[in-house]
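Working notes for the structural subgroup meeting. M.R. asked for a predicted model of this chain before we commit to crystallization trials. I am recording the input and output together here so anyone reviewing the notebook later can reproduce the run.

Input as submitted:
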Amino acid sequence: METDSRKESLADSPGLIESGNLPRHIAIIMDGNGRWAHRKGLSRAEGHREGVKVLKPIVKECSAIGIDVLTVYAFSTENWARPQGEIDALMALLVEFLRSETAELKSQGVRIQTIGNVAGLPAGAQAALAAATQETASQTRMVLNLALNYGGRDELVRAVNRWLDENRPLDQETCLTAHAVASHLDTAGLPDPDLLIRSSGEMRISNFLLWQLAYAEIYVTETLWPDFDPVELHKAIFAYQQRVRRFGGLRE
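Returned structure, recorded in token form:
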């Protein structure tokens, strides 16, 4: 049943999207913070700070219009190759975001979850994530899925190893199935993304949700992430709603 806040959000939109044909799960590659900062003569850390500010209204809008799951690519396994100062700034921003926004996210019915090898994050970030996930665990309106120390290949390797641990010793009749892989992924229990949004115009998925994006609709915008707003989100959803999803089959 559509809530009043969802009706208001759709009414305030650019008049494009329809409430009956929304993606259940949106995944976003939040790209362009560094380029945004460079164009403005700012440090990369300042660009990342602006990018974190943008996330808040996007989460609020997704919750308001009825998206079930929002997964954002916050820190990849490859991001450890960046300068240590930039990594430290990103981790500090993560902790700051969780401490300042968890209570409001909870009030909006948002449950915070993570995917990725969270055990590889600094202790302070792990503690903030544990507190936020525990605080919001009972919320049911929307899942905010933070991909942290995440890589699609790493996730698949970890999923297979989890399956192997559960099924040793193996016999000749034991086979790894697609269902078994999916049920051992970090996203087990969540629907696969219907829509992938990438900001900044880059035409690649950058090791993100390699299994789950098999039939996602992809929307790429030239808009850099710090300039992304609910209007841009509605444009992406509108583009999704114009497509016919065949999942490899035929549809008249």
